[in-house]
Amino acid sequence: MHDTPAHGAVDAAAALRAAEAARDAAARPGAALPAWYPAVNGGLVAVGLVLIGLRWVVDGPLALSVGLLLAGALLVAVQVVLAQRFEQKPGIIQAFPRHTGRRPVMLTYAVVLVVAVGAGAFLGLAGLFIAGGVGGGLANWWLLTRERAGDQRP
User: Fold this and answer.
1) Are 143 and 111 in contact (CB under 8 A)?
2) In the chain, fewer beta carbons within 10 Å around the N or the C end?
3) Has this prediction a pTM greater than 0.85?
4) Percent helix, percent strand, percent coil in the chain, to nearest 5
């Protein structure tokens, strides 16, 4: 900081302009989700986790088990990369979708979690991953479809 009043006013004005620019960037809506994105996101989660779960169901050589694990992990990784690309909005870190309330999101994933844990209790890790994958994929698809519909509203 400078000790002259003129420099202090210049510094304060620059800080105010930077804060206004940050606020404007946070308030600016991002691009709407593409029409194909909810289905692809949900599908990648579902198929990826089901493949990982099948690793405990399919009786075969070690190479098949490792292949299922790697293929499932690759699909889930692709879903994460796409989510970062399409769901990140400028200027903010978004914990919940903008157009879908916290309660529907929390309830949806709570139901998925309960079903997956129940399947895991009866069927082991295979049940946990398969039920979690199918339920999580459907949940993502449904919630992202709702979010996309909200992005389409003026």
Assistant:
1) no
2) C
3) no
4) 75, 0, 25
